């Protein structure tokens, strides 16, 4: 039976589509990049599946992408003979936006009334397939999943609903046909039915795509005879295999957008090649903003593994540690089996060596950024600092390097975070330790009585407000031979020997005077505290609660309690 269903787009999808239909994104050309990118992914998947499953009944002899134009109908079709989609896939993948963070994005867009800001947001988010509605008022997708009999047709005008239907006799793979908006026909800039326009867009955005992107062009000679000519529009050169000095930054940027599904340029590009016993090429990118799912459990890592130009897997956790999960890119290793599994990769010594080199390279790139491009480093730190600090705990081998590149807020300057090195350089004569305080917010820390004596002394205190801060300061313990000392723990001894000698008699007297009060308080508060003692740390507050030197800090206590321990 031919099941025809009219389904509603998910509410969030509908809102995004609204934005697309009314084209808030000024660079409409990129719809073609998105379609080609999807087609290329589908071809990668098919090739891989056919390599792994030898029984799969599919034709992989001429994998390619075709662009077809019908000038009369004003349609543009992008076709691939890749993996295709089942009917369920279509409803799941095309009818809904699975991307985490969609709701937050829409909320932000609603809040910012300003069009440029919305444009920026959508640019950061990327909308893939839906970008077709910037240039088309009707889109038809036809697809047949490799190895399956029946196909599916999907159609929508990008308003509230779409129609899915079973269809017979479709070739394997996917075709997407756009009915171009008539109003664009008048403007040469947006004439997506024009050959030169398509050629230009493909060259600019998709030249590196590893599959041929073909277009059939028609020429009519003076006698009226038409001849057809099939041309390949892209050079198909794997960017990572080319010499660094032969690749333009613009090409790197487009490649980054293809693999990351991001719409903005990367912050840093790292291109490296290793020769010798284990040959590989790596092309890595540090994005210029954090993904929405950076701190979500199922968040993905961004490095793809290729073996001699063949795509093997996305999200290759063996190549990048968790704390650098935001790094995107490609590693092409020459001497691995195409069938390699994730489990085997994790154990592979060569891969472990590659990973060590990649991590070192990423961290040293950040260090260079810090030294030479302060503004870029700042962006990096704002976006990824919280994740990078996890490395202080996870990655013992690179602790030194990590300690060099981290920044933390401090009482020195409310607007400018400091490196540990800069803190040490500002330390006062006679200051032995690096002081810090952890807490939920800067305001809470600054108003805390614990900090009073330090402020009075003019000592700088690091203001640590991320939950991970608790963990690394404990584990690291010291920097540059100076111990990291919490202002909220144990006995603080801020006075020098001379000062102590001066105040000694007075202190003895105070101890005597206050002895009855202290023992009375200790008795009264026996359930709540271990001891009540006279303190020299306060200047204006009458009392404060401190932890024992070996106790957990309040935030850590809360964290453990939240984890049910
Ligand atoms: P993204 O590519 O970022 O996942 P898209 O909106 O571009 O988002 O595509 C959504 C999903 O639809 C893809 O992840 C893929 O699973 C599926 N898809 C899109 N185009 C194709 C295609 N040509 N062949 C097979 N699957 C496709
Ligand atoms: Mg896509």
UniProtKB/TrEMBL annotation:
Start and end residues of each stretch annotated as A: 1-342
- Primary localization class, coarse: cytoplasm
Output compositional bias ranges, type Basic and acidic residues: 502-511
Positions of the UniProt region annotated as Disordered? 490-511
PANTHER family tied to this protein: HEAT SHOCK PROTEIN 90 FAMILY MEMBER (PTHR11528)
In UniProt terms, what function does this protein have? Molecular chaperone. Has ATPase activity.
State what protein this is by name.
Chaperone protein HtpG
Taxonomic lineage: Bacteria, Bacillati, Actinomycetota, Actinomycetes, Micromonosporales
